Amino acid sequence: MHATLPLFPIEASVQAGRTDELFFIVLGMSVVVLGVVAALVIGFAIRYRRGSPAKRGPLPPLISREIEIAWTAGTLFTFLFVFWWASSLQLAAKAPPADAMPIRVLAKQWMWKMEHPNGVREINTLHVPIGRPVRLIMTSQDVIHSFYVPVFRMKQDVLPGRTTTTWFQATRTGTFRLECAEFCGTDHARMLGSIVVMSAPDFALWSEAQPESDSLAQKGAALFRTLGCSGCHATQSAVKAPDLAGLYGRAVRLADGRTVKADDAYIRDSILQPLKDIVAGYQPIMPSFAGAVSDADLQDLIAYVRSLKDGGTP
Ligand code: CUA
């Protein structure tokens, strides 16, 4: 029924139906209260207008007190009931069934990275099977984001340095919008994605067709060559550039005397702002790749550099 209302998102999860029930009950109660109050205001304004013959004076005290008690108790219990209902829905959103499929979500400016239990990774898209509980285990790499899927009536903040979880069970197949619901910087409005809900057999086929989990590093290796990085960073290169083998996770001494750890952020900065951290003993000759590589490319490149940790060669 709700789905036919204009501008109202369809219901595509078990939670969506329950949330809408609460929403419409509270909306209905509000409309009733608003109607009664408005009718009383208008009715009394007309009845007791200046010069009207209506009788003024206090109400009979007994009737007044009983009505007062009934009114107070009635509203108190109504509000307690709504509070209980809404909180039990919220608590249920925090407690996934034990057999829920765990998906890891990493938010960052400005993308969503998902990882399936079998190692399949996705960016800004999440494929899930219909009718199966899915648990999201989420954290942020930088600032606060919020994982919001309107058709699931599901919204959960994603915080740096902390793990938050939520869960859903899809009830419709299709492609649904994922949005970031917390202002997180310049491209917040573009931090969009999609949730693709598939039938169980389709999902199994899709899952099997995905490349192995080291695909990020493999894509990164290809980029490393096509972008020309290997021209300078390869071990046998004539141009003197830092060797990347075994770099990841190591401490790097910089020309200005600082020492930094070669983590994701450092590699990202080195690609986008190469002049920021010049490695001791090297010339500042690397060009910036800002604008030339997308966030996804950066992830691939970082994954590639990370893969060189264990004795690979660029
Ligand atoms: Cu991420 Cu807004």
Structure notes:
This protein is of the alpha+beta class. The chain has seven helices and twelve strands. The chain has helices at residues 14-47, 61-94, 200-209, 215-226, 229-233, 264-272, 295-307; strands spanning 101-108, 111-115, 121-123, 125-129, 133-140, 145-149, 154-158, 164-169, 174-180, 192-198, 251-253, 259-261. A hairpin with a 5-residue loop joins strand 11 and strand 12. Helix 1 (14-47) runs antiparallel to helix 2, helix 4 (215-226) crosses helix 7 (295-307) and helix 6 crosses helix 7 (295-307). It is elongated and about 105 Å long. It binds dinuclear copper ion (CUA). The site of dinuclear copper ion has 8 residues, from loops.
- Find the count of extended strands (DSSP E, 2+ residues): 12
Radius of gyration: 29 Å
Runs in which pLDDT lies below 50 for 5 or more consecutive residues are none
User: How many helices does DSSP assign?
Assistant: 7
Biggest pleated-sheet summary: 5 strands, mixed
Percent of residues in helical segments? 25-40%
Content-based structural category: alpha+beta
Please provide the ordered H/E string of secondary-structure elements: HHEEEEEEEEEEHHHEEHH
Overall pLDDT level: 84
- Biggest sheet, spatial arrangement of strands: 3-2-1-5-8
Coarse morphology: elongated
The CA-CA distance between the termini, in Å, is 59 Å
- Give the DSSP E fraction (strand runs of 2 or more residues): 15-25%
- Give the ligands present: dinuclear copper ion
